[in-house]
Design brief:
Helix 10 links the parallel strand 13 and strand 14. It contains 12 helices and 15 strands. The protein folds into 2 domains: 154 residues, Rossmann fold; 192 residues, Rossmann fold. The longest helix has 19 residues. With 353 residues, it is α/β, with parallel strands linked by helices.
Length: 353
């Protein structure tokens, strides 16, 4: 008598990834996808309801990241888990964190050229699910859920969260922003921008940039996710902040008092990026009058992030870059035409490190 298929529950916040994994795994007669879940809270209920044999689990998800979920799940309901994430690569700290928290194995999502890398990933995943189904994880029952403490979580998220590129600009900034973001490839980490501009104009500006850029460019809305391939521009009458939800970055767009003479304010954006992105941040100050954002750039640098600013020769007004530089918030002054490549170089160095 043939053994029954391995029952798998897929946990991933991306609807596309859930669909791809469901279809791919279902092609294997030895595997049955019994359900999907977009976050750990829904997954918890489905685990009890569906009683899967194996879980596939993403790292970066809203409300609670995958490794924290593992730390809470395994002492209560130990199950074989295979991590499936762009973050789980050999040698990455988060991979070790996931294995320490109870994962049996990991598979990396293709970072580029999804089509060509997908077949290989699915073959690897099917094999690892079958191996995981035979794993004995019962010893996790004796571990205490108290392992999931806040200090561990904060260190984990520093490792798992994507890079955030924060750009501030004012006078002359629309052209400077165009020159920078149109040079970014579509795989560039998420970009957040404050350009001093009246309400109404920011949406038109975002739409124009979207037509010219290889990335998706849009006027930011409260709750939008900061993610690779996307540029979010602050609405003309609201402050833009980057916040963290689980392992993801999102934005808050809210009205408020002027800061450094402006709403939206570059200072508000940069301070939020320093607080929540820290070493994953790249701050960029472009042409503009005044000193908005100077302290925020210094905060990013103090938090371990990287910072650059447009040089005087290429700036329409050297006020904001100069103020940030004089306050120690700028590592180097760069000609406008070279800023995009410098940002990409900094990101590559951080990834290699």
């Amino acid at each position: 008598m043939a053994s029954r298929p391995i029952r798998v529950l897929i946990i991933d916040d991306s609807a596309l990834v859930r669909e791809v994994l469901s279809k791919g795994l279902s092609k294997d007669p030895g595997i049955e996808v019994v359900g999907v879940a977009p976050d750990p809270y829904i997954a918890r209920d489905k685990i009890v309801q569906l009683k899967p044999d194996v879980l596939t689990l993403d790292v970066e998800m809203p409300r609670m990241d995958g490794v924290e979920f593992l730390r809470r799940l395994m002492p209560q309901y130990p199950l074989p888990v295979v991590m499936v994430s762009s973050m789980t690569e050999k040698g990455k700290k988060v991979t070790l964190d996931a294995l320490d928290a109870g994962a049996v194995d990991f598979v990396s999502k293709p970072r580029s050229d999804m089509a060509s890398g997908l077949n290989g990933m699915m073959t690897e995943l099917c094999t690892k699910i079958k191996i995981a189904s035979t794993a004995n994880v019962s010893h996790w029952k004796h571990r205490r859920a108290a392992m999931a403490v806040a200090p561990i979580q904060s260190k984990l998220l520093t490792e798992t969260s994507d890079t955030v590129i924060a750009i501030g600009a004012s006078t002359g900034g629309t052209e400077a922003i165009r020159q920078v973001i149109t040079q970014f490839p579509p795989t560039t980490p998420g970009v957040v921008i404050v350009q001093h501009m009246p309400p109404g104009f920011t949406r038109m500006f975002a739409d124009r940039m979207n037509d010219l850029s290889m990335m998706e460019v849009k006027e930011a809305r409260d709750g939008d996710r900061v993610m690779p391939g996307r540029v979010l521009i602050a609405p003309g009458d609201k402050h833009l902040k980057v916040i963290r939800s689980g392992g993801l970055y999102q934005v808050e767009c809210k009205t408020g008092a002027v800061v450094c003479g402006h709403c939206p304010s570059v200072e508000v954006l940069m301070q939020s990026v320093a607080k929540y992105a820290g070493i994953n941040a790249v701050g960029v100050m472009l042409t503009g009058m005044g000193s908005d954002g100077a302290d925020g750039m210094r905060a990013i640098r103090d938090a371990g992030g990287r910072t650059i600013a447009q040089d005087e020769a290429s700036s329409v007004v050297f006020g904001m870059p100069k103020a940030a530089y004089l306050k120690g918030g700028v590592e180097s002054l760069v000609p406008l035409g070279k800023i995009a490549q410098m940002v990409l170089n900094l990101i590559a160095k951080n990834s290699a490190g």
